[in-house]
Design brief:
The protein is α+β, with helices and mostly antiparallel strands and 240 residues long. The protein has six helices and five strands; from the N terminus they run H-E-E-H-E-E-E-H-H-H-H. A three-stranded antiparallel beta sheet has the order 3-4-5. A two-stranded antiparallel sheet has the order 1-2.
Length: 240
């Protein structure tokens, strides 16, 4: 009589485990609602709980490292001063079984009159990173028959934030703000004024400006560390 021996389940590498997680995660509903900007969103806690469970099943750990932070003070229509913080955070996944690692980056913005702006930005960065990595749908399909999607434009304080951000970037780079506006709209592939930006376009604009600021600050620092040059050519926007 021949005894049948079942082959052990082959061990998965880190990428195969992440592919499994992507396959196993279902749609996460938008249970949160922003009354001020009037939009629904998936709660960070819901996304984190789902992903944490799937990572733990496969013995994968995750660590974070803040790469950059931009802080800007803005004045609201009511005269209050608030801080807008933009974070760039690097996340590292480590497979405790194989030692394999993978790194990815998340970006987040947070606005608050107190000390919660950084916390909000970290929350947004984690949501961005996890939903991007695992391609997580975070709400119902907006294209429902008989319910056309209405545009939701950004608020006045967000418009002012973009303008202040552009002026700050122009000061760092030593170029006119008009060039930044033109290059920004070209990269976003839009022609409308800031008042017609939606939330997604606003967030993309902030990320682009943050990247430009960081690169020009690094460029300025490198120039300071070099010997003075008689002639320096100013780089075109987006060329850094």
């Amino acid at each position: 009589m021949t005894e049948t021996v079942n082959d052990p389940k082959p061990e998965l590498n880190l990428m195969q485990k992440l592919a499994e997680i992507m396959n196993d995660i279902e749609r996460i509903p938008k249970r949160g609602h922003n009354d001020f900007h009037n939009y629904d969103y998936a709660l960070e806690a819901d996304i984190k709980d789902v992903v944490r469970t799937e990572l733990a099943k496969r013995k994968i750990m995750m660590f974070s490292n803040e790469l950059s932070r931009t802080t800007l003070s803005v004045t609201t229509k009511k005269g209050a001063t608030e801080q807008i913080v933009t974070l760039e955070v690097e996340y590292t996944l480590i497979d405790s079984e194989s030692g394999e690692t993978i790194k990815f980056v998340g970006y987040g913005d947070g606005q608050d009159a107190g000390d919660k702006a950084v916390y909000k930005a970290k929350t947004g960065a984690l949501k961005y990173a996890l939903t991007s990595l695992f391609l997580i749908p975070t709400g119902d399909d907006p294209e429902k028959e008989g319910q056309p999607l209405q545009p939701k434009y950004i608020k006045d304080d967000q418009v002012q934030y973009l303008r202040d951000f552009i002026m700050k970037t122009a000061n760092i780079a030593g170029g006119p703000a008009s060039e930044i506006v033109g290059a920004l709209k070209q990269q976003l592939r839009v022609t409308v004024d800031f008042e017609k930006f939606d939330e997604q376009t606003f967030e993309a604009a902030v990320l682009i400006l943050s990247d430009w600021q960081r690169k020009y600050e690094e460029q300025n620092q490198a120039r300071q560390n070099q010997q003075p040059q008689q002639t320096q050519n100013r780089m075109q926007w987006g060329a850094v």
